[in-house]
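[Help] Beginner question about ligand-bound structures

Sorry if this is basic. My supervisor gave me a protein sequence and a SMILES string for zinc ion and asked me to "get the holo structure". I don't really know what that means in practice or what format the answer should be in. Inputs are pasted below exactly as I got them.
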Amino acid sequence: MLGIAILMSTSFWPIAETHLEWRQKDRHSYFLATRLHGKDNEGQPLFLQQQAAESFGELQEAALKAGWDIQVNYAYRSHRQQARLHRRAPNWAAKPGYSTHEQGISVDIAGTSIKKCRRCSRQSTDLHRWLLENGANYGFVNDVPKEPWHFTYVPDKKD
Ligand SMILES: [Zn+2]
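Answer (accepted):
No worries, everyone starts somewhere. Holo just means with the ligand present. The predicted complex, written as structure tokens, is below.
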């Protein structure tokens, strides 16, 4: 209730008009999600858990001041969407039921990695380094190191 009141009284710029919806977390539970600006890689609206969305908005605002216009490739994913992605790319999309995207607390941020050469792994970008340095101030950590684009909201990491 307090969260909703705060959202309504303050203009969190990156959040689209405090758009709240119930999204399914697993077979038995739902969570209240906030819609972010923009669309995901599949043209679907982007959602995060309310608290994560609020903090992400603050992170986006700070990033913008530092010169980064953060674009999101994926945020919340339904069980079905996760299953489809896992079938298509089992190496980087976790099994359905095991992804923090399904909990609405993770974002995949565009422009955080570049493919360097044929054998070596991905090299991170200036934006990735900025996120590593500043993301935790807003509770966002790169919790899957081999995926530099994947940031998860872990509130106790917040300074
Ligand atoms: Zn991810």
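A couple of things worth pointing out: Residues 1-13 have pLDDT under 50 and may be disordered. The pocket of zinc ion is lined by residues 74, 101, 106, 108, 147, 150 (CB under 6 Å). Feel free to follow up in the thread.
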